[in-house]
Design goal:
Radius of gyration: 25 Å
Shape: globular
Largest sheet: 8 strands, parallel
Strand content: 15-25%
């Protein structure tokens, strides 16, 4: 028996200095008679290289003709998820809600909202998903509930058990007039504080007034939320995506129970805008990290109780990179397996060059604690679709990037077929984040355009519903952009996505080393390689120039000739064709995958 050393490298070139940063992680693998592949495969956990898929349930598939997607619709379309190689899907909230924020205002955390179906429908979804090998991740909203939640109603009535479940304050008297306790501004505009006539106090809400913030400085709240975790894990959930984690704690009040005002952000002039103040007292408090660690302990407790594969936490946090790295855990505590990586979705713009792509990829990889897995996000229900942000001619580029970087990928439903944002007028806008603004500002704030119904085919309403209307309008392009049509086009966005996803099962992508490098301003290259396996080169031409690249000058260990494995409709080449490593021709906005040949 011997010990082999595996080296994982990630390299990038800075645009000006052309310096290379190498992240190297050494770990020893004992190799017995069964060989390296078997040992390394045993080391991988299911989520570390998984293909995750976010479903926005209202917009995925309607089974009953009411124009709103539901659980039966998702269950019906599970074979499609299998077709595109989904390992696990996370569902935006499906719990009982008055829908002030379309499910992110939960009135009962252990019930299914009738809009989406019943508990029996959920159990049927879990059963079918398990049968075909797909895991179900639920969206967990810890920061707040609905003001229609029984907990809040009892808290407002000063029920002894629930009196301190939420953040209450009598306010302050200024010149004889009662005012909110602080200057804090809500994410959805206006004060974070709303007066409650019944209780005769202000309550805190970092989002809508109908979304009162829970008080995590009351230990009973944390225990109640842990019980919610346990409830759904016992019913078959494989884990949770945890919403808006940085907002769960505010600064500890002083001895008199008062909070400080937040400092002014001079770059914003609208006093109702969330960014008018720097949120140093209402986001990313140190206690937030401990909350994530406590939730991970619940998962481990339930793993021991229920058995089976490890259950996971995916955390949503727009926070400084050094804070996000703490979400993974520390020397004494395990944290979230997947703290969402928003480096790309937050920083990549339409005019970003290959050096910038490379920089933001390596920002995460170079900060990530040893032994953890990376993840990559370019779309979700809160952000404009990347096809609209970055250009429809980059759809294959972005999907190829997400699916070939090391770690796990997260795809927002519809991105695999190239769905785009749908323009919706001020009069027809229903997203509360936009509705609380004005006709001049709403397009900057609205999330409706990215939440429109999924485009299944070219039938009426894109096959989303058999009803007479849809809750949001279907895109005008649905006859050209839909699953049915793209299945029949060899180089469609859907089929390119499926081809690249299939490559993820190759050993070089599952367990191999990675180098990323900007070859010039326009071309980003990713090398994935593992001893004894073919080496793969992912080449992405971000712009409109024809490029000829010499891969031998950028990477070592390549064969003289390389084989085309995946091509898009941008390329004149075909799968199986050969090219020379020192002169690969790329067309404008081209995306190709090559491999070495024996």
């Amino acid at each position: 028996m011997k010990i082999d050393t595996i080296v994982i490298q990630t390299c990038y070139s800075a645009q000006d200095t052309h310096q290379m940063r190498v992240l190297t992680v050494f770990f020893g693998i004992f190799i017995g008679l069964v060989g390296v592949s078997t040992i390394l495969a045993a080391e991988l956990k299911w989520w570390q290289t998984a293909s995750f898929y976010q479903i926005y349930p209202r917009s995925f598939k309607d089974s009953d003709g009411d124009g709103v997607g539901d659980l039966k619709g998702i269950t019906h379309q599970l074979p499609y998820l299998k077709e595109i190689g989904v390992t696990a899907t996370w569902l935006s909230p499906i719990f009982t809600s008055p829908m002030a924020d379309f499910g992110y205002d939960v009135a009962n955390l252990t019930e299914i909202d009738p809009t989406f179906g019943t508990m029996e429908d959920f159990e049927a979804l879990i059963a079918k998903a398990k049968a075909i090998g797909i895991k179900i991740i639920l969206d967990f909203v810890p920061n707040h509930t609905s003001d229609e939640c029984e907990w809040f109603i009892k808290s407002a009535a000063k029920d002894p058990e629930y009196k301190d479940f939420y953040v209450w304050h009598p306010g302050k008297i200024v010149n004889g007039v009662r005012q909110p306790p602080t200057n804090w501004i809500s994410v959805f505009r206006g004060s974070m504080w709303t007066w409650h006539e019944g209780r005769q106090e202000y309550y805190l809400h970092q989002f809508l007034a109908k979304q009162p913030d829970l008080n995590y400085r009351n230990p009973k709240v944390m225990e109640a939320m842990k019980d919610v975790f346990r409830f759904w894990l016992r019913r078959g959930a494989a884990g949770f995506r945890v919403d808006a984690v940085p907002h769960t704690f505010e600064i500890q009040p002083d001895a008199q129970g008062n909070y400080p005002d937040e400092p002014r952000n001079p770059s914003v002039n609208d006093p109702e805008d969330y960014m008018y103040y720097d949120h140093v007292y209402t986001t990313n408090q140190p206690e937030t990290i401990d909350m994530v660690y406590q939730l991970r302990e619940v998962l481990e407790e339930m793993d021991a109780e229920l058995g089976g594969e490890e259950r996971i936490i995916m955390t949503e946090a727009y926070a400084p990179l050094e804070v996000l790295m703490e979400y993974y855990g520390n020397a004494t505590h395990k944290g979230a397996q997947i703290p969402f990586n928003f480096e790309l979705i937050s920083n990549i713009q339409k005019d970003s060059n290959a050096y910038q792509y490379d920089e933001f990829i390596n920002n995460w990889l170079s900060h990530m604690p040893e032994g953890e897995a990376a993840n990559w996000v370019m779309g979700n229900h809160d952000k404009s679709r990347f096809s609209s942000r970055l250009g429809e001619d980059r759809i294959d580029i972005i999907n190829m990037l997400l699916l070939t970087l090391p770690g796990c990928s997260i795809t927002y439903n519809g991105d695999e077929i190239g769905m785009t944002d749908v323009w919706i007028s001020w009069e027809d806008t229903i997203d509360p984040q936009a509705c609380q603004s004005n006709p001049q500002e709403y397009e900057r704030l609205t999330r409706d355009p990215v939440r429109t119904p999924f485009q299944w085919n070219d039938d009426k309403f894109a096959g989303f519903t058999d009803g007479t209307s849809t809750w949001l309008p279907v895109s005008d392009n649905y006859k050209m952009v839909n699953v049915k049509r793209e299945r029949g086009i060899t180089r469609s966005h859907l089929n390119v996505y499926k081809q690249v996803r299939n490559l993820r099962d190759e050993p070089a992508f599952q367990r191999g080393q990675t180098e990323t490098k900007a070859l010039n301003e326009n071309v980003l290259a990713i090398k994935r390689y593992l001893g004894g396996q073919p080496t793969y080169l992912v080449l992405l031409n971000l712009n409109d120039n024809v490029e000829v690249v010499n891969l031998n000058a950028a990477f070592s260990g390549l064969t003289h000739q390389l084989e085309y494995v995946v091509v898009t409709d941008r390329s004149p080449k075909y799968t199986g064709a050969m090219t020379y490593a020192d002169s690969v021709v790329m067309m404008p906005k081209d995306a190709i995958i090559l491999k070495t040949v024996a």
